[in-house]
Amino acid sequence: MSSTKELEVNAENKMGTMPVGKLLISVALPMIISMLVQALYNVVDSVFVSYFDKDALTAVSTAFPLQNLMIGVATGLGVGFNALISRALGEKKRKDADEVARQGVFLEAIGYILFLIVGIFFIRLFMRSQTDDQKIIEYGVAYGSVICIFSFGMFIQMTYERMLQSTGRTFYTMITQATGAVINIILDPILIFGYLGMPRMGVAGAAVATVIGQCVAAVLAVLFNTKKNDDIKVSFKGFKPIASIIGNILSIAVPSVIMVAIGSVMTYVFNKILFSFTKLAVAVFGCYFKVQSMAFMPVFGLNTGMIPIVAYNYGARKPDRMMKTVKYSAIAAVAIMLFCLVLMQIMPAEILKLFDADDSMLSLGVPALRIMSTSFVFAGFSIVCSGLFQALGKGVYSMILSIARQLVVLIPAAYLLAKLTKNVNYVWLSFPIAEMASLVVSVTLLLIVNRKIIRPMKQTTA
Q1: CB count, 10 Å around CB of 452?
Q2: Would you call 182 exposed, middle or buried from its count of C-beta atoms within 10 A (0-12, 13-18, 19+)?
Q3: Please, how many CA atoms are within 13 Å of residue 319, restricted to the half-sphere of its CB?
Q4: Which uninterrupted H or E stretch holds 410?
Q5: In this structure, are residues 434 and 409 in contact, taking their beta carbons and an 8 Å threshold?
Q6: How far apart are CA 285 and CA 279, in angstroms?
């Protein structure tokens, strides 16, 4: 048997026959670790910026919706071709998997060009639409323009990491993400404060550190795919866009991108609501979002590991393995979120002091963190449901879930609470309210998926 055939058998043994619990751990654990490291460097980034200037922290929080949208486009497109690659491999269609990967790289390149244009022409307009504080605007322009213009590293990194994930090689993505994060953490204080003979770049230094880390991670991701990923071969010789494959990728990716876009719109509007009270509230909200990522990123990592397993076994017509994967993922996700909820409840002041919080920030931030973190109780299960929908090609269900949570419930609730109470502490309640609504929608859509896809599959494979 050839080495290629052996690799195909090994892939089948791992994704199609390895005990589900062991498989989920082997695929998801590296992703959980790497995303925790990613979340850590995001927190460290804001910590260093906060010690440079509190207005710089507010500026980074104000620029976050655009940065989040950019990451969402890259990851959303990745989710699209990731699921299709895993499904093609599950169906033993190697050439189809290779072609999906080529078309995915093409789409990611278009995504970068769009944000290059935004970075050159529209950052200042974006910042001015949220605040008229000139200092915050200038900080935001300095940070956002670098993040967008040099985002090619991030797009390449995300693209090739998704190829590794789609074939179960998540250990290598852990290395790429951890390396990029460590480089970012090391460069942050050097470039922000001008250590080791470097110029004092301030908030722009945080952005430069980020893009350098992304570029190094991108190089590693390409090398790992070239040297270690025998299941996918990406060659652009004779390449041409194939509308049918692009359409299939976008059918999964667009709902995922829209979900992130909705999140960016939510953050943008929420920031505007908070600016009506005080710019300190925006800084507190920014701190919460960074700390929240430490709780959510492990669940997102678990979800990222779950999606290719479910997609592979969906293609291989193994519904019992699919649902066992989802069950284990849901249990782990809920446990992680409950643990993080406890931490947020018992030590909010200590968390805020990491960001050089003074008494006024603590007075506003402690109740904010405690109130918003109660949404963790419901979030884990909803995230896993969203991942299941994406793996089954029902990305529109994930989009519906995100729209219901953030646009239909959260923003209207925040606006009404702000107008009716004139007290920012009540505005934070919009988060647990929205998450409860999200849980109801998740369960409803899960029942539909079970009736239309999973139950019929069990009947045909029995």
Answers
A1: 12
A2: middle
A3: 14
A4: none
A5: yes
A6: 10
Question: Which single residue is written with the structure tokens 């995300």?
Answer: 158
Question: Which amino acid is it at 441?
Answer: V
- Residue 318, H or E segment: none
Q: Where are the domains of the chain?
A: 3-233+242-461
To the nearest whole percent, how much of the chain has pLDDT over 90?
48
**328: pLDDT strictly greater than 70:** yes
- Closest among 61, 62, 74, 82 to 114, alpha carbons compared: 74
C-alpha torsion sign, points 167, 335, 402, 281: negative
Using a cut of 0.85, tell me whether the model's pTM lies above it: no
Q: Which amino acid is at 257?
A: V
Retrieve residue 56's tokens.
């710089």
How far is it, in rounded angstroms, from Cα 37 to Cα 294? 9
* Token representation of residue 59: 């500026």
Question: Which H or E element spans position 169?
Answer: none
Q: SS3 string of 253-282? A: HHHHHHHHHHHHHHHHHHHHHHHCCCHHHH
Give the tens place of pLDDT for each residue, 95-131.
888 899 999 999 999 999 999 999 999 999 999 998 8
Nearest one of 273, 236, 238, 239 to 412, comparing CA atoms: 273
What is the pLDDT of the chain when averaged over all its residues? 87
**Structure token digits, residue 79:** 């989710």
Q: How many CA atoms lie within 13 A of 165 on its CB side?
A: 36
Helix (H, G, I), strand (E, B) or coil at 423: coil
* 302 touches 31 (CB < 8 A): yes
pLDDT tens for each residue of 29-86 = 877 887 787 777 778 878 889 888 888 988 988 888 898 889 889 988 988 888 788 7
Q: How far apart are CA 410 and CA 435, in angstroms?
A: 8
For the stretch 12-16, contacts whose Cβ atoms lie closer than 8 Å and that sit 24 or more positions apart, written own/partner, are 14/168, 15/86, 15/89, 15/90, 15/168, 15/308, 15/309, 15/312, 15/313, 15/316, 16/90, 16/312, 16/313, 16/316, 16/318, 16/321
Amino acid found at 7:
L
Those residues with Cβ within 8 angstroms of residue 249's Cβ, 6 or more apart along the chain or in another chain: 77, 80, 81, 84, 100, 103, 104, 107
Residues sharing a CB contact under 8 Å with residue 322, sequence separation 6 or more, in sequence order: 310, 313, 314, 454
